[in-house]
Amino acid sequence: MLEALERIRGFSADGRARFLADPMVQEAVAYEVLKLGEAAGRVSKTLRRGHTEVPWGHLVGLRNEIVHEYFRVDSDALWQFVERELDVIERGLRPLVPKRP
């Protein structure tokens, strides 16, 4: 999940204007958000209950929106996710991942 966050940051690094102007960047970000939601849905209920700082249900909901309403995904809303939620999600996930030696 952290890798997906890093990819989203890379794809969106050129800012909002570039994001909104480039459908390929939007598609790349949407795909990574889809992967985040898929992974969140596979996390055990026990872990999710113990780490409510991660918006598990929201991630799954975004995944479902992308999959089932793909042609109606709002680019502005996707950008808002990038701008406002990535740091919160990362802060919640980072402690759950063992540090590499």
Keywords:
101 residues
Gross morphology is globular
Helix-strand category: mainly alpha
The CA-CA distance between the termini, in Å, is 19 Å
Write the element-wise H/E pattern from the N-terminal end onward: HHHHHH
Q: Tally of extended strands?
A: 0
Which segments are poorly predicted (pLDDT under 50) over 5 or more consecutive residues?
none
Cα-based radius of gyration, to the nearest Å: 14 Å
Strand coverage percent:
under 5%
Largest beta-sheet characterization: none
Mean of pLDDT = 92
Treating each run of at least 4 consecutive H or I residues as one helix, how many helices? 6
Number of domains: 1
Describe what you observe in this structure.
By secondary structure, the chain is mostly helical. The chain has one domain (2-96). Helices cover 73% and strands 0% of the residues. The chain has helices spanning 2-11, 16-21, 23-42, 45-50, 56-68, 75-93. α1 runs antiparallel to α3. The longest helix has 20 residues, at 23-42. The chain starts with a helix and ends in an 8-residue tail after the last helix. The model has no long low-confidence stretch (mean pLDDT 92).
Task: Annotate the secondary structure layout.
Elements: H1 2-11, H2 16-21, H3 23-42, H4 45-50, H5 56-68, H6 75-93
